[in-house]
Amino acid sequence: MQKSSRLKFRRIREREIARALRFLTLALMAAVAACNSEGTGPLDPSTGGLTLTGGRGVTESISGSGHYVRTDLPGVYRTFSFHATKKADETVKGEFQLDNDGLDLDFHGDIVCFTIVGNEAWVGAVSERTNAAGYDPPQEHVFRIVDNGQGDNFIPDQVSTMPLGDTDSYCQNTPLYPALKDVLDGNIQIRQ
């Protein structure tokens, strides 16, 4: 292998490792947020998971990570990770990371709102960092998620793309877009 080819391969591998570390960091942050002791109750075996309590603590949370296949570019995966909590006073705190594998295109930002209806959530986010040419953060994005549960006979969880959109309007009106895609090798949790 020529020296320039080895150097190019090394740079690609370093980017892949950095992307994996960002993804793992957000997944860990999502796990920590789900286990946050401020305002959350103990693990309750009767409900199969974390019991969230009211008051000044966390009342709702969303988290997830995984990937899905892009329909516009067959064979190209989009890897995502997110977590957010909502307190009784309606304040929302959270983050998201979106990586377009194969395109070396990444987005990172804050989740600013979400609305849960049943096993679905509508999420508003603001991108803070990206390496996309010609894209100037901050920009508002919206996406939907569906938690289809766990178990032996589970249906895959679902996530949508993240188009630009008015976050407040999206979270208030809960429209049936963007289209949902099955999550591969991942999981979404919606807790009320």
Q: Can you describe this structure?
A:
- The protein is an alpha+beta fold.
- It is built from 2 helices and 11 strands, in the order αβββββββββαββ.
- Helix content is 20%, strand content 45%.
- β1 and β2 form a beta hairpin.
- The longest helix has 32 residues, at 3-34.
- It starts with a helix and ends with a strand.
Give the helix/strand layout:
Blueprint: H1 3-34, E1 40-44, E2 49-52, E3 58-69, E4 77-87, E5 92-100, E6 105-117, E7 120-130, E8 139-146, E9 158-160, H2 167-173, E10 180-182, E11 184-191
Antiparallel strand pairs: 1-2, 3-4, 3-11, 4-5, 5-6, 6-7, 7-8, 8-9, 9-10
Write a brief caption for the model.
By secondary structure, the chain is α+β, with helices and mostly antiparallel strands.
What's the pLDDT, averaged over the residues? 80
Strand order of the largest sheet: 10-9-8-7-6-5-4-3-11
Radius of gyration, CA atoms, in whole angstroms? 18 Å
- Strand and helix order: HEEEEEEEEEHEE
Alpha-beta classification: alpha+beta
Show unreliable segments: 32-55
| Shape field | globular
Query: What share of the residues lie within helices?
Result: 10-25%
Query: What is the terminal separation in angstroms?
Result: 55 Å
Number of helices: 2
* Percent of residues in beta strands: over 45%
Oligomeric state, counting identical vs distinct chains: single chain
The major β-sheet equals: 9 strands, antiparallel
Q: What is the number of E strands?
A: 11
Please name the defining characteristics of this protein.
192 residues; alpha+beta; nine-stranded antiparallel sheet; two-stranded antiparallel ribbon; 2 helices; 20% helix
